[in-house]
Design a protein that fits this description.
This protein is an all-alpha fold. The longest helix has 8 residues. The chain is elongated and about 45 Å long.
């Protein structure tokens, strides 16, 4: 699996197809879908 700059996943713990399946699931929220917490008022 390609290094995305944050960490590397090992096949020892998760095979690539399973990682893709989980990350592409409709209930998984990705970073680009999160609100901008820095611009929100307290």
């Amino acid at each position: 699996m390609a290094d995305n700059g944050y960490h590397r996943l090992s096949n020892k713990y998760a095979e690539e197809y399973m990682v893709q399946k989980v990350y592409n699931h409709e209930r998984v929220i990705t970073l680009d879908e999160l609100p901008d917490w820095k611009s929100r008022e307290n």
